[in-house]
Specification:
The chain is an alpha+beta fold. It contains three helices and four strands; from the N terminus they run H-H-E-E-H-E-E. Strands 3-2-1-4 form a four-stranded mixed β-sheet, covered by helices on one side.
């Protein structure tokens, strides 16, 4: 592990664990088959949530992501919230944004072995 990661883990473990657990809890009952991944990142003033969906984002999926965001931000009253609900069809690679909390299992594309 690099020095940077060791320092980061020593300084922020409770923030990281708190964010991942809060996001995980908020996702309960809100994950549909179209959700490819959900992640969270934060800084001193804002929390950023990322939801990547396969196919057209339904009204129900949009509402679920907003419910997750509402549930999550309750633990961060002093932070601004940015919710990113993004269509990203399979097999496009999901970008690595923040801490990954949920990722659905997907078959590898034919061109990957």
């Amino acid at each position: 592990m690099s020095q940077h990661h060791q320092k980061e883990d020593k300084e922020y473990p409770s923030d990281r664990v708190k964010a991942i657990l809060n996001m995980s809890r908020a996702l309960w009952g809100e994950v549909s088959p179209a959700l490819r991944s959900a992640s969270v990142k934060w800084d001193d003033s804002a929390v950023y949530l990322y939801f990547f969906y396969d196919g057209k984002i339904s009204e129900e999926d949009n509402e679920s992501a907003e419910c997750v965001a509402t549930e999550f931000i309750a633990s961060y009253p002093d932070h601004n919230l940015e919710v990113n609900i993004i269509r990203l069809d399979y097999p496009q690679k999901v970008p690595e944004e923040g801490e990954l909390v949920y990722k659905r299992r997907e078959a590898k594309p034919q061109n990957e072995v």
